[in-house]
Design brief:
With 292 residues, this protein is an alpha+beta fold. Helices cover 26% and strands 26% of the residues. It is built from six helices and 17 strands. A hairpin with a 7-residue loop joins strand 3 and strand 4. Helix 3 packs across helix 6 and helix 5 packs antiparallel against helix 6.
Amino acid sequence: MEFRYITKENMPCWYELSWQEKEPAIILRIHKDFIKNLDFKIEELPIVKFLREDFDFNEFSTDFEGDIGFDKVFKRIGEKNRFIEFLIKIPEVKRETNKKCSHCNGSGKDEDLEQDCFFCEGTGKDYIMDWYPAQVISASFSVLTTLLSFHCETDTSATTSQLLTVETMTREGMHGGSLNGEISIPLCEWLSSFKDYAEIPEAVQSMITAYRRMFGLRDYQIFDFRFYVRDKGRFIANCPGDACGMHPSDWYFEKGKGYKFSCHNVDTPMQQITLLASLAALYDKARKNIKT
């Protein structure tokens, strides 16, 4: 197979992301031509075996006529314009229990600091962190984005161009939610029309909504969410964490070409899902404004 790159040429779309703000979810659309041209079994990919062993997941479902992914977490919701659509609901990771907060004994106050308890945020309730729903989504994305990064030799029949690609990684520990990808020529040109440091509010709001769904949200954290465009269409995104976000892989500019992006300190699946939400919202906004 000859590798082709959307940073160097326009190619018919084979998959795209979309964002659902109400009942927050990411939508993955895969063109039927891409699925038809698959010539190997996804469940036999080394990454599937690695993730199953590392996280003790169940089988990876590959029946595109139904739900797919580990635990069938990508829910098939229909077909539109020859794209099969899968809904990935943003999970609730931080969940309230019926117990009192063990740090403030249910008072909701930190008496030493004379402020709300940091651990329960003043509710007096105990919380548990259920990481599994986010891990299974992240791992399923890692398998599918690895698969989707290898474009078919045969173009799809889509009349629109592929705007961006993304690949994700899932593992324990530092950089456990890394992601990277490519920005296409038309998307780069469209982003170049923005003023320097222009925010893309839809991408920012998607991150806030996704993060709030998973963790709740402290007032001061709102300022940790950024998605803005720099010179020549290079975007930068930030979310809560230790300088956590996405950025161009380099700042080299070649006229008429796209570029690659990578990430910094994306340590958890939750941060990864937050940033994926911003890319999905960006895709929606760009698709409405780019004529291809």
